[in-house]
Each structure stands twice: as C-alpha cells, then as structure tokens.
Design brief:
By secondary structure, the chain is of the alpha/beta class. It is 39% helix and 17% strand. An eleven-stranded mixed sheet has the order 3-2-1-4-11-10-5-6-9-7-8, sandwiched between helices. Helix 1 crosses helix 12 (293-305) and helix 8 (159-175) packs across helix 9 (201-215).
C-alpha cells in the first residue's frame, strides 16, 4: 500500500513551489506514494500546479510580488503555517511522512516565528532532541550542532550532546540497513588539536564521549581531522560521519563524486521528515531554472523511510 506523503511548498517567493510541482510530476514519485501539497495557491498555480496533479491544502500569503523574490513577512508566515498544519495532519494519522521544500530563515524571523528553522521547530513541538543528517548514495553525515555560529561551537559542544547525537545516528544508520554501523567522529580543531597544542576540545569533550559510547556497545572511531575522516568515509572504511558543525558536513557532501543529489532528513521525530539539501535560491526563483532532482529524491527517500522501524509514532 502506498504511503500518503504531504509536501510543504516552502517559501512562496523561492524555488519551493517550482521544485514541488516538478516532483509532483515525477513518475517514480507517483509510483512510490500518494502525494498531497500544502502551500500558497497563487505560487503553486504559477509553478504549474493543477487539481489533476494532487490535492492542495491552501495556506496563502497576501500581496506577494513574484517579480521581486526575497524574504518577506507574508511569505514567512505562510510557509510557517504550512509546516505547522502539516505536522498536525501527520499526527492525526492522515499522512505517513513530511517532505519540506526550503523556507527562508530571514522570512520566518520577519514573521515572528517561534523557531529559526524546521529542525528547531520540530524540537520544540515534539519535545525531544532530533538529529539532522544528510545522505547521498552511501555517504551519510550527521550533525552534532546545526545552525550555530563558529564562534559559539566550543561552548555548545558537550559530552552529553555528542553522545546523544551518536546514539541517534547509530539507530538512523540501522534503519538504513547497516546492522552494526561504524561511525567516525570528526574533530573540531585542525589536526584533531595536536595533543592539545591547538585546542583541547578533543581531549576534554570528544574523547570522553567516545569512551563512554564504546562502553555502551557502539562502534565509533576518532576524533579524526575532517579531511582524514571524509577520505576514510568516501573510501568505504566507515558507514557514517558524525560532524560537529554544519559546513563540516555540507561542503564535502555536496562536492563528493557520484551518488546523486543529497537528501536532508531528520531522525528522532515521531514521523519521517525529508527535504532537499539546499535553500530557497531567491536569485533564480521564477526563472524556470530550478533543479528539482533533490526534491524528487527527498520524496522517494521519505517513501522508503515510512517502511523503516524506529519512529516513535503518536
């Protein structure tokens, strides 16, 4: 039986409506699931949506200027309302998974959103710690911290947080089919701190976390310098990388050879959630240039996740 999957179309002035409509027309996606979309009616119609494609749950933003794409309070309010409505529908049992097109953090801030982005919002709604991770073929990279300024990283990294994210990553990899996953933990400092000469986070935080994780039965290595960790993962010597901050994962992930488009997904929620691993791209919005391959892959990945164990459904 095909799962029912709901797509939020993202910021109505970004590329979200365009890539959503293109994904709705994907033969592979239509074979894998039944799709529904929630978002701004004018934006989706402008992108080519018709009732023949799928049902639309309208969450409209007034007064949009499609000739001037960018962050706006109405666009932020509409995209936020769409996500909140989609979560309620999933929790009611009508849908099995959520796929989110890109939102604008700046637009959410202009709209007075209670959280800066999707993952923060889900953390607040579900009152549990989620894991942000990215998959591309056999490449799997998860984050200990998410959208954190570099200057704040040292104070945000704690042994408890590293352990929590590693345990979540271990269960996520098992859901993907890795029976006994091997996780490599990236270091924070160049050369993994060189024995404390250029940073002590590895000694004070990361190594103690690894020791405790090993005692709990996890297969973990590190902390390794980022370049060495990524080289090992791309060579197949580990099943996933636990990265400490956003760009430590995203920059190598997006330029690694092969594997198709990356998918951003959230583990640890009561429902599967995926998205393309890119932003609103206001600079190319409404020019017909948006590449929907990431959105299509996010839909297919979500359909696969609905069949996996590990979600605390409620």
């Amino acid at each position: 039986m095909k799962p029912n999957i709901i797509i939020t179309a993202g910021d109505p002035l970004g590329i979200g409506p365009e890539i959503t409509v293109k994904a709705l027309k994907s033969a592979a996606a239509l074979r894998a699931c039944r799709l529904f979309v929630i978002g701004d009616t004018a934006a989706l119609k402008r992108a080519g949506w018709t009732p023949a494609l799928c049902p639309l749950l309208p969450v409209d933003a007034p007064g949009l200027d499609f000739s001037n794409p960018g962050p706006t309070a109405p666009g932020g309010a509409a995209s936020l309302k769409a996500v909140l409505a989609a979560v309620k529908l999933i929790k009611s049992g009508l849908f099995s998974a959520l796929v989110t097109a890109p939102i604008s953090k700046e637009a959410w801030a202009l709209a007075g959103a209670p959280a800066p982005a999707h993952t923060d919002l889900f953390r607040s709604i579900e009152k549990r710690e989620p894991l942000m991770l990215f998959s591309r073929g056999r490449v799997n990279a998860a984050l200990v911290t998410e959208h954190v300024p570099i200057k704040d990283l040292s104070s945000r990294l704690t042994k408890a947080l590293v352990k929590k994210k590693a345990l979540l990553f271990n269960s996520a990899l098992k859901a993907l089919g890795y029976k006994k996953p091997l996780i490599a933990l990236c270091a924070l400092n160049p050369h993994a701190g060189d024995g404390g000469v250029i940073g002590r986070e590895e000694i004070k935080t990361l190594l103690p976390a690894l020791r405790e994780l090993k005692k709990e039965g996890l297969r973990v290595t590190g902390p390794s310098p980022s370049d060495a960790a990524w080289a090992a993962h791309l060579a197949g010597r580990c099943d996933g990388l636990l990265c400490l901050y956003h760009d430590q994962a995203l920059a190598p992930l997006k330029i690694a050879p092969g594997g198709g488009p990356p998918v951003h997904w959230t583990w640890g929620l009561s429902f599967p959630r995926t998205s393309p691993a890119h932003g609103t791209a206001f600079d190319i919005a409404w020019r017909g240039k948006a590449d929907a391959s990431g959105m299509r892959e996010a839909v297919l990945f979500a359909a696969r996740l609905t069949k996996k164990p590990g979600y605390l459904r409620k």
